[in-house]
Design a protein that fits this description.
mainly alpha, 154 residues, single chain, 2 helices
Length: 154
């Protein structure tokens, strides 16, 4: 019985050694995996710091751009208000011109007879002036003709 006990102890010892060898191999593999994961995490940490810096720079530029846009928007507001006022002024001017033209049209329509008479008198005055000029020319011509005749008789 003692032999069985020694064989059993030897089998248990061999099984324990085999188990320890497999556990050592597993732990080595686990160590390598953890080292690889550690390097990957360190690399990601460095990349994350770079991304964080870029994000901070981008955020700063965005804030600067927003402030610049806000300043330019305030300046543009005054231009928009000025253009709006010019629009109102032009509208008022157009309304005034329309009112004046409507008044003139109404006055012309109301005084159509008087205007016709004025035009007739104007035509008559033009004709009288033409006649007067014609008479003056005839007199001048007659005087010149008389002077020529008088010079011949002498």
């Amino acid at each position: 019985m003692e032999a069985i006990l020694y064989i059993s102890v030897a089998v248990v010892a061999v099984a324990f050694v085999v188990l320890v060898i497999y556990i050592i191999q597993t732990l080595k593999s686990l160590t390598q995996t953890l080292n690889h994961i550690s390097h990957t995490v360190e690399s990601l940490e460095g990349q994350l710091q770079g991304v964080t810096k870029e994000t901070e720079n981008l955020l700063k530029k965005t804030n600067d751009l927003a402030a610049d846009i806000q300043q330019k928007s305030k300046k543009l507001d005054s231009v928009v208000i000025a253009v709006e006022e010019v629009g109102h002024t032009l509208q008022a001017f157009n309304h005034s011109v329309n009112s004046i033209s409507n008044t003139v049209i109404q006055k012309v329509a109301d005084n159509q007879d008087k205007i016709s008479q004025i035009i007739s008198w104007g035509k008559l005055a033009g004709e009288l002036k033409d006649k007067w000029s014609e008479i003056k020319e005839r007199r001048k011509h007659n005087k010149e003709a008389n002077i020529v005749i008088d010079n011949r008789t002498e």
